[in-house]
Amino acid sequence: MKRRNTLLAFALITTMALTACSGGGGNAGSGNAAGGNAAGGNAASGDTAGSSAAETPAKAKAVSLKLAHTQSTDHPVHKSLEKFAELVNEKTNGEVTVEIFANGVLGDERKYIESLQTGLLDMAKVSIDSMENFEKLYSVFTIPYAFEGMDHGRKFMNSEKMEDFYTSTIDSLDIRGLTWYNSGGRNYYARDKAILTPDDMKGMVMRVQSSQIQIKTVETLGGSATPVDWGELYTALQQGVVDGADNGIVAFADNNLCEVVKNFSFTEHILSPDILLIKNSVLEKLTPEQQTAVKEAARESTAYHDEIWGAAEQAAIDKSKAAGVNIYYPELAPFAEALKPLQEELIENEQVAEYLKIIDDMK
């Protein structure tokens, strides 16, 4: 299956690359050649046709945007992205469409961000943690216990301050954020051991994303951190390559990790929302009306996501329990206290410290 997905990803990326090379702008579905043919046809048919063309407003070129993410088609974020695509189609009268590639068939999140830079992708949904390696400002979201729960996080994510994050990568990466989706807090889980106190982490080998802060978090708690690709985590847990990892409960259950893990603790040590990205130059090639439609559709898809998230989270808990997973709600204060030295180390960065104060003031 992994080889098949790899071949499919290669084929899709190759196709997109060829399209970009031949389209004179890449993502405009009708292309420059189609527009040129239309203009040439009017001129060739004489004065009458030219007069008719002058009276009829030119139709905007059709644009197809390719959007990738790693979750399954059953995950609520995929349904929210489908809603986004539906809204974009409606608001642009079909002039702009969004094609979604789920299940990580086009690679992992780091590859998505790199593909946005090179133009192989137009859009991607990634965990906000994945942005840390590309823009230091995003490390605010990976600092342990920077937020006091989801209500606090939602207040900041919906504030005008998020625009600073969305626009922080325009000049450096030609990427901007459009909106965010709740994916729950990150929580520790393990194959054979319940994590109820910071001491329970000692000596454990934990899978992390390729994030220096996530690595330091595990090490501060006495564990050993090992970066593992999301698509390989199930096998790594099953074979005992790692003892545990951290995720939101929905991603945990949706990817069937409940089949190989028996202990899940709601440690909520990191707020880890998803973020919807678009290549900025692709966005700017759209008409002003289309740009407004895309941005509105993004915001409205977040509102839709909030409506379906609660039920999805409860369903994930129920599925995990049915699979034999023990669900724990440990006291969070000892974890926050154990990680305080790391938090103090991270706020030595003036920009990060500034936004942490803004976050703290929103409690």
Low-confidence stretches: 1-57
SSE order, as H and E?
HHHEHEHEHHHEEEHEHEHEEEHHEHHH
**Sheet bearing the most strands, described?**
5 strands, mixed
Q: Assign the structural class, choosing from mainly alpha, mainly beta, alpha/beta, alpha+beta, or little secondary structure.
A: alpha/beta
For the record, give the distance between the C-alpha atoms at the N and C termini, rounded to a whole number. Answer: 46 Å
The helicity comes to 40-55%
Mean pLDDT: 87
State the total count of DSSP E strands.
Answer: 12
Shape: globular
Question: How many alpha or pi helices?
Answer: 16
**Percent range for β-strand residues:** 15-25%
Strand order of the largest sheet: 2-1-3-11-4
Q: Mind telling me the C-alpha Rg?
A: 23 Å
Structure commentary:
The structure is a single chain. By secondary structure, the protein is α/β, with parallel strands linked by helices. Helices cover 48% and strands 15% of the residues. The chain contains 16 helices and 12 strands. The strands form 3 sheets. Strands 2-1-3-11-4 form a 5-stranded mixed beta sheet, sandwiched between helices. Strands 5, 8, 9, 10 and 12 form a 5-stranded mixed beta sheet that branches. Strands 6-7 form a two-stranded parallel sheet. Helix 4 packs antiparallel against helix 13. The longest helix has 35 residues, at 288-322. The chain is globular. It starts with a helix and ends with a helix.
